[in-house]
Specification:
Isopropylmalate Dehydrogenase; two-stranded parallel sheet; binds NADP nicotinamide-adenine-dinucleotide phosphate; binds magnesium ion; alpha/beta; ten-stranded mixed β-sheet
């Protein structure tokens, strides 16, 4: 059979441990037999990051900016333990954090739904995609414990001179605590633009929620920026047949539980921290959660939401069989290829991405699954596949 040609190179970022093993199998058995694709390969495995003083991560991020679409394997974010384990020069920063800041992007998480795995929330029929703003608020707060009576003030001193502005935070009569948090218009705007780029790309409604009734200036600014950015793109929203809704955070949380899904929920940093985990737990397994990094200009990097599945890798290295779920990693490839096909105007590449996903879902619907999915399924299958066995089953179905 003739291979389908992918017009523009795809940026590929390899990774670590069990996901690196899975990565090579996916490429060998599911991608390269069917596609004629030029892969701009960057090895983000921890040894190569260490050997290149992490230049490889920066180069990979720039390649995604240049070509527009990347696909990434999970990678180790080293801590002291990993520095010792791999004999690293230092604890290099998180590759995802680095790439995100070079692309000024936002990470969205999207669950993969299958008919025989029912979400914990009965009304959810379509994915809820969660986008979390990743700058400021609580996560860059300054905090102070007050131990005796006194006044705490907020002071703004313009750099160019001019009048100082002061607000009394509180007149303390006894011990207490205070916090100062901030955010940046530019960061909020980039976040809004990334959310709009993904909503348009996926053709799903965009929700944004904060508590602007209480925090009229701070959270109110988020609401204003989202309103201005979505208004500027009103025609594109109409053409895509999607809408924008602003809701108060508590209203959004209640409505999300009763909704059938199929929307993008944009959230401020703290709300996103909480609700991304709520939504992930509600849909089921980490092995079935994908993630996409979207820049404000519409550059995309697809990935699985889980890590390198370290425990399974140690078993694999001992020569023991493993049963690691490769679905989210396969969907990272199909997601990237679909996007590449859409941007290139090559429907045959989009069709391949669809076929690959159908092959995966078809296996799961027939009860061919890895061990992590068995307790979630209705009916429960009698057995489970090894890591490689599952990928082989998908390959057979795809062929
Ligand atoms: P992990 O890879 O997310 O795995 C934690 C546990 O969740 C596994 O031990 C396994 O549970 C289950 N699990 C996760 N993915 C699975 C899959 N595909 N199939 C089956 N089970 C799965 O987290 P970790 O092992 O604690 O972290 C390892 C490394 O990943 C860390 O160095 C961290 O820095 C990195 N990390 C990278 C990314 C990324 O690149 N995006 C994200 C998160 C973490 P059982 O052991 O019970 O089977
Ligand atoms: Mg969290």
């Amino acid at each position: 059979m003739a291979k389908t040609r992918v017009k523009t190179p795809l940026v590929e970022l390899d990774g670590d441990e069990m996901t690196r093993i899975i990565w090579a199998w996916i490429k060998e058995k599911l991608i390269l037999p069917h596609l004629d694709v030029e892969l701009k390969y960057f090895d983000l495995g921890i040894q190569t990051r260490d050997a290149t003083e992490d230049r490889v991560t920066v180069e990979a991020a720039h390649a995604i900016r240049e070509y527009g679409v990347g696909v990434k394997c999970a990678t180790i974010t080293p801590d002291a333990e990993r520095v010792a384990e791999y004999g690293l020069k230092k604890a290099w920063p998180s590759p995802n954090g680095q790439i995100r800041s070079i692309l000024d992007g936002t990470v969205f998480r999207k669950p993969i739904l299958v008919s025989n795995i029912r979400p914990a929330v009965r009304s959810w029929k379509k994915p809820i995609v969660v986008g979390r703003h990743a700058y400021g608020d609580l996560y860059r707060g300054v905090e102070l414990a007050v131990d005796r009576p006194g006044r705490v003030e907020m002071v703004y001193r313009p750099e160019a001179g001019g009048e100082e502005r002061r607000l009394v935070v509180h007149e303390f009569k006894g011990p207490g605590i205070v916090m100062g948090i901030h955010n940046l218009d530019g960061s909020i705007r980039s976040f809004a633009r990334s959310c709009i780029a993904l909503a348009l790309s996926e053709k799903i409604d965009l929700w944004f929620s904060t508590k602007d009734t209480i925090s009229k200036v701070y959270q109110g600014r988020f609401k204003e920026i989202f309103a201005a950015e979505t208004a500027a793109r009103r025609e594109e929203f109409a053409r895509a047949g999607i809408g924008y809704r602003y809701l108060l955070i508590d209203d959004a949380a209640a409505q999300a539980l009763k909704h059938e899904g199929g929307f993008l929920w944009a959230l401020s940093n703290y709300d996103g921290d909480v609700f991304s985990d709520v939504v992930a737990a509600g849909f089921g397994s980490l092995g079935m959660m994908t993630s996409v990094l979207v820049s404000p200009e519409g550059k995309f990097e697809f990935e699985a939401a889980h890590g390198t599945v370290r425990r399974h890798y140690y078993e694999h290295r001992k020569g023991n069989p493993t049963s690691t779920n490769s679905v989210a990693s396969i969907f990272a490839w199909s997601g990237a290829l679909r996007k590449r096909g859409e941007l290139d105007g090559t429907p045959e590449v989009v069709a391949f991405a669809d076929r690959l996903e159908r092959a995966v879902l078809g296996c799961i619907e027939e009860g061919i699954v890895t061990r992590d999915l068995v307790p979630l399924m209705e009916p429960q299958p009698a057995g489970w596949q090894t890591t490689e066995g599952f990928i082989e089953a998908v390959a057979a179905r795809l062929a």
